[in-house]
From TrEMBL:
Enzyme Commission number, as recorded: 4.2.1.24
Protein's recorded name: Delta-aminolevulinic acid dehydratase
UniProt keyword Metal-binding present: yes
Gene3D superfamilies documented for this protein: Aldolase class I (3.20.20.70)
Keyword NADP: no
Residues involved in Mg(2+) binding: E247
Enzyme class: lyase
A Pfam family: ALAD
Subunit structure as annotated in this protein's UniProt entry: Homooctamer.
Similarity field: Belongs to the ALAD family.
Keywords: Heme biosynthesis, Lyase, Magnesium, Metal-binding, Porphyrin biosynthesis
Taxonomic lineage: Bacteria, Pseudomonadati, Pseudomonadota, Alphaproteobacteria, Caulobacterales
Catalytic reaction(s) noted: 2 5-aminolevulinate = porphobilinogen + 2 H2O + H(+)
Length: 338
């Protein structure tokens, strides 16, 4: 049904509904709450906190500190935490062998967080890049990313994470067919309740720069073989929209419970189209580069950091996102008065 025609000015003065805070609050169309946030967090193998230079306010946390942060998330009303590992470079290899290690820092952090705050959902990235010397999300065979060989490793990694108590598995690798393989494996291994949030439309973006610093990612284009210098053969071309809808459709068909668009703000049009096309819970990842930009401009006094954070997070809600994965989660939740 189309709305009735607008009355002409002066009968219609749109500013009437903006004249005071109470009426602005009353007619507000979308509301941001701590329940919209997934806290993006980095865990490392050592003790204490290690600040990430390119992400002021973000530190790599020890397993113990992750458990404390989970308690803090619960207090702040943040429903879930997405956990990413920093692995010592000397322990990586070309095959990402440690990715499925049940004694690794991710399963230890998951257990510690679930013990400390079982009410907080824990989401794990399924991808090999924190564990590979070359920094790619996939295995390399003859200088190319090998899709199907990678899937086998991802399934092993995902099952290990589920075993450790992860509530949501979030494959961020962009291999074809990994959602179906993972869903099937979870069902057969007795983990029917473990959820999958697929990084369905993940773009080959410049905005991941600080993250690769945060997790100490291997340098692309380096390593024992002739390794690709970028991720463009598996992550999407930033120019494409129709392809994003195909990616999302495929992942839903294969068993994804929720989907994600990544990066965030530069891709709000994709969020909107995915929500309209599929009506499944759709999340956006406000990535490390987006975080760094707001922090840098805020530190220089070029913009009001707190307002920019809340405005950017609200924009995701307005676009139709069910929630946002963000490094700002605790800061934003505090501002939202939790
Ligand atoms: C890789 C992965 C990346 C991020 C999450 N998982 C980086 C990449 O694809 O190179 C980026 C997160 C961020 O920038 O905050 N599996």
């Amino acid at each position: 049904m189309s709305p009735p025609p607008l009355a002409p000015y002066p009968a219609l003065r749109l500013r009437r509904l903006r004249q005071a805070d109470w009426i602005r609050r009353l007619v507000r169309e979308t509301v941001l709450t701590p329940a919209d946030l997934i806290w993006s967090m980095v865990v490392h193998e050592g003790e204490g906190e290690v600040p990430v230079a390119s992400m002021p306010g973000v530190s790599r946390l020890s397993v113990k500190d992750c458990a404390r942060a989970a308690v803090e998330a619960r207090r702040l009303g943040i429903p879930a935490i997405a956990i990413f590992p920093h692995i010592d470079g000397a322990r990586k290899d070309a095959e990402g062998s440690l990715a499925a290690d049940p004694g690794g820092v991710i399963p230890r952090a998951v257990k510690a967080m679930k013990d400390a705050a079982p009410e907080v959902g824990i989401m794990c990235d399924v991808a090999l890049d924190p564990f590979t010397t070359h920094g790619h999300d996939g295995l390399i065979r003859s200088g190319r990313i090998a899709n199907d060989a990678t899937i086998e490793r991802l399934v092993a990694q995902g099952l290990m994470q589920a075993q450790a108590g992860a509530d949501i598995l979030a494959p961020s690798d962009m291999m074809d067919g990994r959602i179906g393989a993972l869903r099937g494996a979870l069902e057969s291994a007795g983990h029917p309740d473990v959820m999958i949030m697929s990084y369905a439309a993940k773009y080959a973006s410049a905005f991941y720069g600080p993250y690769r610093d945060a997790i100490g990612s291997g340098k692309l284009g380096s390593g024992p073989e002739d390794n690709p210098a970028d991720k463009k053969t598996y992550q999407m071309d930033p120019a494409n929209t129709e392809e994003a809808l195909r990616e999302v459709g495929l992942d839903i068909a294969e068993g994804a419970d929720m989907v994600m668009v990544k990066p965030g703000l530069p891709y709000l049009d994709i969020v909107r189209r995915v929500v309209e096309a599929y009506r499944v819970p759709t999340f956006a990842f406000q990535v490390s580069g987006e975080y760094a930009m707001i922090k840098a401009a805020g530190a220089n006094g070029w913009l009001d950091e707190d307002r920019a954070i809340l405005e950017s997070l609200s924009a995701f809600k307005r676009a139709g996102a069910a929630g946002v994965i963000t490094y700002f989660a605790p800061q934003a939740a505090r501002m939202l008065g939790a």
